Amino acid sequence: MTDSHRPDDPESTPAASTVEETYSVEKQLDFSQKSYSQGQLVRRRFFRHRGAMASLIVLVVITLVAFTSIGYGLIPAWWNKTFYEAGTAVDGGRPTLQLWPFQIGEHPFGQDTIGKDYFALTMRGTQRSLIVAFTVGLLSTLLGTIIGAVAGFYRGWVEAVLMRVTDLFIIIPLLVLAAVLGKMAGGGIWSLALVLSLVSWTGLARLVRGEVLSLREREFVTAAEAIGTGSGRVIFKHILPNTIGTIIVSATLTIATTILLESALSFLGFGVRPPDTSLGLLISEYQNAFLTRPWLFWWPGLMILAIALSVNFLGDGLRDAFDPRQNRTAD
Known about the structure:
The chain has a two-stranded antiparallel ribbon. It is elongated, with a radius of gyration of 26 Å. The longest helix has about 35 residues, at about 120-155. Helix 10 packs antiparallel against helix 11 (about 230-240). The two termini are about 40 Å apart. About 65% of the residues lie in helices and about 0% in strands. It contains 14 helices and two strands. One of its GO terms (biological process) is transmembrane transport. Keywords: Cell membrane, Membrane, Transmembrane, Transmembrane helix, Transport. It is a multi-pass membrane protein.
């Protein structure tokens, strides 16, 4: 008589069956005999991250509504009211939006104290905050990546100078430094974005420097230098592509931080200034109406919260997608 569950048979143990069910995405792809690039593996991991996908949808919807509702540049507006025309407050300026029975009405977000449509005002503030946040995310990422890569590759006195400058920016409180520079910028969104970019690159620079210090000792870098490849090509063609995961994740987190920083600066009077507006400025202008007209406070606050949370969840999804140590099970 043959015992099919011998203790020395690894295929019959519960642990073996558990291991078979917990293969990572990459291992299952190997068994399917398909060839996938690293970029395809990253995309598959990202699309399987439900939180990131939901956040991406929310962020895209907010952006599309903000830029198409009241228009921007060549983009036509479909909302029939503007953010600068005053009028007569109807029913005390209360929101006409109803969930049950569903109804949008003339002023879904209500009206401010002088009768301006608050939906148009909130969309204008969302536009300005998004422009500042994504501009800062792009510029600070470029600046931090270049400084970190140069410092990590050349080392010596170049690294010492660049890292001491980085430390100087780090030790100064970010909000204080941004407030001083924002006051000098004059309140324009592009000048404000440039100012915030100059103070938001330090964290990424240190991360990229650490990655480059490790990668520059690898064999492929030594081989590139041995055949006479220039330093710039080694940095941007061979080293930085291997740090793209760190860079992208850091960029998304910078965008989320910038949304909150811009809102804080505008709230304190050092950011966007009237007659223009932003989400932080709307909260600042109507903070005294919190008890009498709470919708003037809640709508811009909810937009800030939705954007910041969406970008943060996107960053989490990208981090999981780029991290090769993630051992997610395939759906």
